Structure formats: C-alpha cells, structure tokens
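Data deposition worksheet. Section B asks for the primary sequence of the deposited chain exactly as it was used as input, without tags or linkers unless they were present during the calculation. Section C holds the resulting structure in token form. Section D is free text for depositor observations; keep each observation to a single sentence. Incomplete worksheets are returned to the depositor.
Section A, Depositor: J.P.
Section B:
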Amino acid sequence: GRLPFGALAMCGMLVVPLAEGTYVNPTTELLAPVVRKQIAGGALYVFSSYVWLGFPLADTVGARWTSRFPSLWLLPGVEQGLRSVRAKSDKDLADAYTRIERYTVDAVVEDFTKDTPTVVVVDERPDPRFAGVDFEYLAFFEHDPRFARLWSRYVKLARVDGDGVGPYDIYVLRHGHDATASLSHSSPTPP
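Section C:
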C-alpha cells in the first residue's frame, strides 16, 4: 500500500498552485485597461529589457507583437560594455559592442517599418540591468534619424504608475496615420 514516488511528487506540485492561486502579473493588470482601449486588434511594441512587461500584456489585450525580440534584452549589456574600461582599451571589443548596438537599432527601425505599432509602452523605471548607466529608450533610439521620423507619428497618451508598478509611458499612433502604411522611403539599410 505505498504510493509511488511519482504520485507523491505530483500531489506536491499541485499544492503550491492551489494554495497560491493562479499567476497574476501586476504590470499587466495595471496596463491592460489602458492599452486595451487603444489597441483594437492592432499592434503592440514595448521598450523594456524585461520580457514580463510585454508578455502576457500582448496576449491579454489581443495585440499583435511587432518586435522580433521578446524584450530589448541586448541593450543593458551593450551599454554597460561600451562604457567599460576594457572596451575603452580594446578597439575590437568596442567594435563588437557597437555592432550589437547598431543591429538593435536597425532591428527596431525595421520592425516599426514592417508592422507599425498602434500602441507603444515605454518602461520608464530605473533599470538595474543598466548598472548605473543613465539610459532612456526614446532618447537613445531618436539619435537615429530613421527612428526619429517613425517616432514623430506618435503622441503620448498617458503615464501609468501605481502600487510599486511603473512608471510606464503609453504612446499611440497619431490619428490620420495608417497603422499599416509602408515607410519604404525610410527603410533601414542592411548592416
């Protein structure tokens, strides 16, 4: 009459979810009502190094995800690396970081061009992954004239902040701009 180890393990795995309840992402709970009103089956883009900001938000509001990346996870390491003592003394290393930075900018421009987001969420929280590097997503990307042209089509809708979650800025495509319009004149050149 002993239960097999597998059955006991399965019972043990069920205890935690039953006691804790289902997963709730407080950021999604905060952003979803605002984003849902604006998205209307459109596309979502998120500027953050955290995957949990874009997902499950995109799924929750029924948005198309327009980025090739689940998050902009490359940027914290690249920006730290470019400012490192080692990169300042090693041209090859600095060049490698610069190529990764350029790839990220080119990818964002291409993603915005191919499938124009209807709503963009910008993570405005201090991000410890940047290890003290003062970094602002929009200022960083607007250094590229292609992105600046694309970004000129957006207007800030709201800043969302609450109960230790945020702040996040929400931008929407200005009225009068077709969210599916091609911007072939501003297509990025291959790296």
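Section D:
The longest strand covers residues 154-162.
DSSP finds nine helices and five strands in the chain.
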